[in-house]
Amino acid sequence: MDKTSIEQTSEFGDQSTSDVTVCLRSRDGMPELFYCHSSILKQKSGFFAEQLISDNTSPKNYIEVKCQGSEYDHYAKLLKLLYLSEDLILDSWDAVKTALGVLRASIALQCEGITNSCIQYLEAVPWEEKEEEEILKITPALGTAATALLARIRPVNENAAKNVFLSAIHFATTAESSFPLYADELKTSAQEQVEYMLVEDEDTPLVILDEDVRSEVRTGLARVFTRFEGELNTLNIFFDLSPQEAEERMLQCLSDIDWMCNILPKMEMMKDFISNWIGISAHMLAIIQADAYCSGLWAVKAKLIELAGKAFDAVGYGSVVLPAPSRLHFLKTWLPYMRKMKPILDSQSEGDDSFPHKMDTDQCQNIEGAIISLVLALPSNDQAEILGDWMKMAEKVKFPDLSEAFEVWCYRTKTAKRRLMVGLNGVGNPTVTL
């Protein structure tokens, strides 16, 4: 009788036709009897086939299967599955947890068909972290049959990681209008993927050194700044139509710029950001400080201070190395804006307790510290220019407070004069230039 005929003529639990009783211990330790058929058991289970082969002439008609009480349900389900065709077995799975439990039982009872069905189901559905851990515990017992399961969790090669990173960077820096359906979700997902790879993925350090990857990042950075410049150039049009919408468009661009500012240090590419930021700064500030926006765009103005603070931090503490003229130009471009906006934002918050854009103490201290560090790294004459300008305004403008830089400059000036005098009074009266 062929396999299909056996399945059709034998019914699980039919005591009238059963010739083998299988005993399982339930959760409470009580024996539970299942009426089965030796033809089914021998054909589909190596374990039962061995048990049913007897050296004696009398066949065995009672088999006790040893299993823990917590495994009872899975063993009981397996016995029922022995009576189903392969297609019906595959359709019967409803949860990863169940499939894993039956898989353990199937391995123990050497049921190749059910084992393969479990693997096929598990390979096709998502797993939770705990379920993945259980799968990893089971796979050694599966041998080569576990290949399909392990393929999902095997570390990717460098080219695969590189391609994922390139795609994520592209989507993360592309305008939403290019992907109108689910645009925000797609961009957010791509940005999160990039952040994860930079922080958590062990293979990423090799990927981020790849020149193709760095080129795509630079291209994406240029796209973000170009899009922001476009918003600046059309700000007056959108602002006249809807100030709120105009501000939201600007903030979206600044959010992308901020995201780039956060990931580039992890790739040692912050210099590319600073170059783009300095390049657009004068144009940006000229537009934002126009009279038409003097009483609006507060979120944008505050965000610019935040981003400028990050740029000051990178340049001031030496993460990004720039020539002295570039550092001086950067400082002279943004220092007036900082001086102007801090008291304006403070006054807005004093008149409105719900105003969310006031600069807090930590932010002010961080920006001040970076500016002081930047000033002290300039040539002494440039320091004198910046500090002289600050002293003229010190009574009216309290931020940023450059007192520390002034004290250091005074000390250095006196020290330099002493060195000069020592040089002039020394043997040979050498020429000393400062």
From TrEMBL:
Keyword Ion transport appears in the UniProt entry: no
Instruction: Please give the superkingdom of this protein's source.
Output: Eukaryota
The cross-references to Gene3D superfamilies, in alphabetical order and at most eight, read: Potassium Channel Kv1.1, Chain A (3.30.710.10)
The pathway noted for it is: Protein modification; protein ubiquitination
Q: Which SUPFAM superfamilies match?
A: POZ domain (SSF54695)
Outline the extent of the BTB domain.
18-91
List the protein's name. BTB/POZ domain-containing protein At3g05675-like
